[in-house]
Amino acid sequence: MAFCLLTIILIIVGLLSSFGSSFDPSPFQDFCIAASDSNAGVFMNGKFCKDPKLVTVDDFFLAGFNVSGNPVPGMGSFINLVDVNRLPGLNTLGISLVRADFAPFGLIPPHTHPRGTEIIVVIEGYVYVGFLYPDPTNPLNTRSFTRILNKGDVFVFPQGLIHFQYNIGHSNATVFGALNSQNAGLAMVASGLFGSNPPVGDDVLAKAFQLDKKMVEQLRGLFS
């Protein structure tokens, strides 16, 4: 009987430990307003925290999410990102927002967010979306998960996986998204490889993409 009870206790402790490790760590305090001045407070989660006595309501507020943001060069798309770098009150809270606007046939090209999962909802238009999933048993095999989304549809891109969004309609489209990181990061695949500084070697790119070096130079010129 004692052995059975001990076994049950060990199983419960193991399960609790497993559940606990699957959640994000809780913040150490209610808020930590990101400060640019290193003399303003303590360092936490990549930012300096403003002295709580100096915090104002404006630290939690940002206007301008009702309009499109910065253009993605040559793609017919625009990104309005609200992360900790624009809204200091997000520091340590593990969340950020993004708005994507598309001209007809506009594209957000394949990219990744290394530190965040993204969930989106289509506000207007018809958007073709998808992500790539490398087979864990054979990384050379990749599955694609794609879907055409209509107004009101929701889709999720798992953290770190390459994904894209493409407006397939003849009118503008708008998508709102949220990420479970205050600073999820953004790594564009094509421009990252062909537009890096200093550049990736011609031999590497030519062999990786089965291109001749002349084509590599042409692509580098497009993304530089």
Automatic annotation (TrEMBL):
Cupin type-1 domain sequence ranges: 65-217
CDD domains: cupin_OxOx
Binding site for Mn(2+): 111, 113, 118, 163
GO CC, alphabetical: apoplast
Single annotated GO MF: manganese ion binding
InterPro entries linked to this entry: Cupin_1, Germin, Germin_Mn-BS, RmlC-like_jellyroll, RmlC_Cupin_sf
Keywords of the record: Apoplast, Disulfide bond, Manganese, Metal-binding, Secreted, Signal
Signal peptide: 1-22
Disulfide bond sites: 32-49
Coiled coil found in the keyword field: no
Annotated localization: Secreted, Extracellular space, Apoplast
Binding site for oxalate: 113, 118
Family: Belongs to the germin family.
Protein name listed in UniProt: Germin-like protein
Organism field: Anisodus acutangulus
